[in-house]
Each structure stands twice: as structure tokens, then as C-alpha cells.
Amino acid sequence: MKPEPASGAADEGELKLDAYLPYRLSVASNAVSGLIARAYQDRFGLTVPQWRLICVLAEDGGLTQGQLVARTVMDKVTVSRAAQGLLNRHLVARSEHQADGRSHVLALTPEGSGLHAEIAPLALAYEAALISGLAPEEVALLKRLLTRLQSAAGQLSGDPGSPTV
Amino acid sequence: MKPEPASGAADEGELKLDAYLPYRLSVASNAVSGLIARAYQDRFGLTVPQWRLICVLAEDGGLTQGQLVARTVMDKVTVSRAAQGLLNRHLVARSEHQADGRSHVLALTPEGSGLHAEIAPLALAYEAALISGLAPEEVALLKRLLTRLQSAAGQLSGDPGSPTV
DNA sequence: GGAAACTAGTTTCATATGATACGAGTTCGC
DNA sequence: GCGAACTCGTATCATATGAAACTAGTTTCC
């Protein structure tokens, strides 16, 4: 494969780790994820996957694990384990799926809803703190660019499960 | 803690996972990292930490592991293991550190340099493919914003090791 | 000069992750 | 109907990660 860095590549053919986008993305994401993960873990004993399930269930009501997998972009094993944890703490409840005996429908219990209501403001406060000092347009652009990258990565890896936006 | 989403928060007090920046960042980063990690692993048998060490050593010559830790933002255990792997494959060599008997100085061997020269173009091509379709200013802004987020996360977590740019 | 406090790097351990195999249920094709 | 092919969720395994303990070497300070 002939390398031909197209538009916008760092500085012309030079590979500098500090300027390398995948590296920068990973480092920034780790910093942010670590912060958030610690906060949820320390204060509420939740893992990030568990918190994501709670969020989605709070938004969308009763879903199967398969739907949660699609919705959260996490592995089905991760979702299974997170769901198990939440079940043990009675934050979500399972009910039989009408049409499919293999599947269950998950929904937040009142406790789960309560916890979500408690954490959500904190989560938003964290986001606000992270982007404080950025202009709203910058944040919007950032989100668009992230989606682009995700989609490009999906295309390159041949995976279909990526936004084609 | 009173939640008070400041400037630029998604849409007013609503928490939607899809619009939540830490989530978006994590998903995008995972997609990109996964792509890159698979490429290095499949074609060259390198892990991402190993590749990062190679990059930094190619840029900066002989460094101690401590310097590598600082330079790559990775854990010292991760660096230790990555270095071990590279040593086993004779891609880097160790020499005694003059002033400090605990430390060794790591540098690429000719083979290591050769591998770097082989991979670097591929790495740049990946980056180029990822950002193809983005304007150069957008890419530059993206990198700046990522640095900002990383730095903000560092501040919030009380860690010093973050760019104060 | 030598004990206490410190630092570089490794080892150990506990946990997290995802690929793979599996068990149970479903759908398709005949 | 009933077996083959498939899908949902779980269990198993192999690997990756980082926290904490540890070893060996260094600095500090009396």
C-alpha cells in the first residue's frame, strides 16, 4: 500500500505520536472515561456498562438485551453481565418476552429510576465541566466529527454497525 | 452537589446517551482504536503499547522506561510489558544507564527501526483515511478540542499529569 | 558512613474484556 | 410435524489491564 497522507494529515509524511489522531483520541477518551468511571463507581457502585443500561432504559423503557446491545454499542457479554449486576441490586426487573421465550424484557424498577434521577444531574454537571470554556458550536462540531470518525472506522473495518451519517 | 449544566450542554437538563459527550468520545475512540489495534496485531504482531514505544523511540532516541511512561501516557506496568515484548523480538535494545543503576536506556535496534519505517506509512494512511472528507481546519480544531477535554478531565480528577494548555 | 525515605522497574494479583462454545428456544423448509 | 439452520442470552476461557507489593538501587540527612 502506497502511503499518501491526504488532506489535513499532520505535517507531511512525518509521523509524530503527539500529532497522531488515533493516539490523541485514545488518550483523551481514557482521561474522560476514567474520570467518569471513577465517579460512578465511587459514589454509586456502578460500572460504566451498568450506567449505560440505566440511561438507555430510562430513555426508552423496556428493551431486550439485544436491543440494549445495539443501542449502547457494547458487546453482548458485557451487556449480559451488566444486566445481571443490575438485577442483583434490583435496579432493573425482567419480564417474559411475549413472542420469544429466549428473550426477556428489561425495565427499570422504581429504585432504578430513582437512582437514574439522582445520577443524571451529576452526569450532566460533569459534561458541563468538561466542555466549560468551549463555545457551543465547538461542542456541536466535536460531536459531529466524532461521529464521522466512528463511521469511517466502521467502514474501514468492514463492519456494518456504524453510523453512515 | 447542585447540578447546573453550564454553557453548551446538550439541550437543557435532558440526559440523552446519544448526545452525551463522554459516551460519544468513548464509542468513537473504541471504534478507531479497535481498527488500528487489529491492523498492527494482524500484520506485525504488535500491540498498541508496543507500537507506541516504537514510535516514541523512533522520534526521540534512547529513553528510560520512566520517560516512556511520561511520553506515552501509559501505565508503567504496561510500558514494562511492552518493552519486554520488544526486547524478546530484538526490536529494541537495552543499555546500562550511566548515572542510575536501576534504569536502562532503550533504543530501537536496526530491525526495530526498519519495522517502524515499514509501519509508519501505513499508520499515516489510516489516519488519512479516517479524516478524509474533513477539512484541515476541522481536524486541527478536533485535536485542540481533544486536548482541552483531556486537560479538563485531568483537572477534575485532581491529577497533575495533564496538559494545562 | 549508614539508616530512612525515596525511585525505577518487575512481579503478583484481582478484575475487565471479548472471542468462542454452549443450551434453550425459534423459524424455515420440506 | 420435524430436523436443520438460526438467534438470544449465558458460561467458559484466554488475554489485557492497573493497583499494590516487592526488589534493587539511590538520595537525604544526621
The largest β sheet of chain A comes out as: 2 strands, antiparallel
Helix residue percentage of chain A: 55-70%
Terminal CA distance of chain A reads 28 Å
Overall mean pLDDT of chain A stands at 89
- How many strand units of chain A? 2
* Count of DSSP H/I helices of chain A: 6
Radius of gyration of chain A: 19 Å
Task: Describe the fold and architecture.
- Two copies of one chain form a homodimer.
- Chain A has 165 residues and is mainly alpha-helical.
- Chain A has a domain at 48-127: Winged helix-like DNA-binding domain superfamily/Winged helix DNA-binding domain (Arc Repressor Mutant, subunit A), CATH 1.10.10.
- Chain A has helices at 21-44, 48-60, 65-72, 76-88, 110-131, 136-156, and strands spanning 92-96, 104-108.
- A two-stranded antiparallel sheet of chain A has the order 1-2.
- In chain A, helix 1 crosses helix 5 (110-131) and helix 2 (48-60) packs across helix 5 (110-131).
- Chain A is globular.
- The first copy, chain A, starts with 20 loop residues before the first helix and ends in a 9-residue tail after the last helix.
- Residues 1-11 of chain A have low confidence and may be disordered.
- At the A-B interface, helix 1, helix 2, helix 5 and helix 6 of A face helix 1, helix 2, helix 5 and helix 6 of B.
- Chain A binds a DNA duplex (30 and 30 nucleotides) through helix 4.
Keywords:
homodimer, mainly alpha, Arc Repressor Mutant, subunit A, two-stranded antiparallel ribbon, 2 strands, disordered N terminus, DNA-binding
